[in-house]
Write a structure and sequence with these properties.
CATH class of the largest domain: Alpha Beta
Order of helices and strands: HEEHEEHEEEHHHHEEEEEHH
Strand content: 15-25%
Number of domains: 2
CATH topology of the largest domain: DNA primase, PRIM domain
Number of helices: 9
Shape: globular
Radius of gyration: 20 Å
Strand order of the largest sheet: 5-2-4-3-7
């Protein structure tokens, strides 16, 4: 409690990890860093509100955060599929989705700044607003009370959302009798480019002959994850590795080569 009060007084800034030790999440957050991104958050807010999907829009220094809370914990994979599906349906780019991982591999995963603190640069406390850009409640105290028991998204809404299953690991053609794992892996690699595949899981921005973004495999403060579209590979400049889509999937899921190949060809 001392830490929470210090956060509210602006003495420290607290963050919340999105995945627990069982790789489950109770919320997702859309993070926008500028006014254009804030307009996109308002678009998402308006679109989901029509489907009676409860969400909470928080202001920040340059943009905002859009919080969605689950009725009960869901796997990181389910949480991300739901969030990525929303972005895909509304054709929105340039917004970060938290959590950034399906499951934990190294360390506790992605961290999101907790609400109601005082910004260390501006000295301003940014609260929550409605889609009309009016305060969610007249005072910060009332907003904190409202957020202490937020409206939640049911399992039914997650599973019935039209685009909740839009993002899947690509399936290779049916495995042929007697075909080696190496041959199957080659067909998987040829079924989709690294840029197309990785973009389903990481927010990437065009950069030269490919794209760049924040690496999901370590606490990346500055974009160090690169995709070379011409040569068709990914690479982390801080030492997390690189390679093909199978190499990415192995590290993302924390599994071995054979299991990664089998996951890509089996029916879910």
């Amino acid at each position: 409690m001392d830490h929470l009060f210090a956060h509210l007084r602006g003495e420290i800034t607290l963050g919340a990890y999105c995945l627990n030790q069982k790789n489950k999440a109770r919320f997702i957050v859309f993070d926008a860093d500028d006014e254009e991104g804030m307009a996109n958050l308002l678009q998402i807010n308006s679109g989901l509100a029509q489907n009676h999907c409860p969400l909470y829009l928080e202001l920040s220094r340059r943009g905002g955060h859009l919080w969605l809370f689950f009725e009960k914990a869901v796997t990181g994979r389910e949480a991300r599929k739901f969030g990525l599906g929303i972005l895909a349906e509304q054709k929105i780019e340039g917004i970060e989705l938290f959590p950034k991982q399906d499951r934990l591999s190294q360390g506790p995963g992605s961290l999101i700044r907790m609400p109601f603190g005082i910004h260390r640069v501006t000295g301003i406390r940014y609260g929550f607003i409605t889609s009309e850009r009016k305060p969610l409640a007249p005072t910060i105290r009332e907003q904190i009370i409202a957020l202490s028991a937020p409206q939640t998204i049911s399992d039914l809404m997650i599973t019935s959302y039209p685009t909740s299953s839009s993002f899947e690991i690509p399936k290779a053609p049916p495995e042929r009798f007697g075909e080696s794992t190496d041959k199957v892996s080659q067909r998987i690699k040829q079924s989709i480019t690294v840029l197309e595949f990785v973009s389903q899981y990481i927010d990437l921005k065009p950069n030269g002959s490919g794209a760049i973004g924040k690496c999901p495999f370590h606490d990346d403060q500055h974009p160090s994850f690169s995709v070379n579209d011409k040569e068709n590979y990914w690479h982390c400049f801080t030492g997390c590795g690189g390679g093909s889509i199978i190499d990415f999937w192995m590290k993302w899921r924390g599994i071995g080569f054979v299991e990664a190949v089998h996951e890509s060809i089996k029916d879910e």
